[in-house]
């Protein structure tokens, strides 16, 4: 299939989500080429991309690159914030420009952003029709990150934006450090890929069940066979991560995957219990 249909170019395909996604694509017979800062087989560099453009036979382009915002070893300095920004906005822009220049356009450009584009609220419920807003550094980042990916759509390349909630998994992301209020059950494939060729626009990448931090912590503890968890005080998170970053863990939004469900997406782990059971499975 990969030789006939072409391959998928995945920015940040070496990461936590990117590795799982690339494995899924390969298991379906697609070729995968990763854009990475590190050399390796089936990889190109960001400089290669800018200088040589899209590799021949690229049928789809996906960007999953981004400096880990919650890296506890990195202080929230202006320099680090710039890395966080550039690693998302500039990589998305490089891929968008390569698509614009390509003679043979890929069928689809998929970019990720975060539910951080929705203002935390204890009452508001957001779906994909809700407008993103700029109210802090992370929301401005999400806004710009989504925006720079939109250019190829003007030339008819289908653009899908996944506004992802926190991704739970054994191999990376926040689960390694902390217990968090939101989760995304990594979805299984839905029917045949060719049924989904009309998907475009924003999709909320969250599971249909909304849970609070407390509910998540309780369920996760139960899955780990622990009787209770000691709550992490907010001031400790503020101290360790700085308030601007800690907000990602201490505040939350109620986000509903309305369009995602309307497209018929089937979740492999639709509720918090099944997601937690999968995480702790050794
Ligand atoms: N995990 C979550 O819960 C979550 C939630 C919402 C949104 N997202 C977004 O989804 C994307 C993937 O998340 P993830 O958890 O898979 O991330 P990750 O594993 O921390 O990193 C993804 C990849 O980004 C590349 N990268 C890291 N720093 C970079 C830099 N300074 N410049 C260019 N590339 C850099 C790395 O690839 P190389 O080392 O190969 O260059 C890395 O493998 C990120 O943009 C993230 O913000 C994640």
From TrEMBL:
Give the top-rank taxon of the lineage listed in the UniProt record for this protein: Eukaryota
Span of domain DUF1731: 232-279
Span of domain NAD-dependent epimerase/dehydratase = 8-130
InterPro entries reported for this sequence: DUF1731, Epimerase_deHydtase, NAD(P)-bd_dom_sf
The name this protein goes by in its record: Epimerase family protein SDR39U1
Q: Which organism is it from?
A: Diploptera punctata (Pacific beetle cockroach)
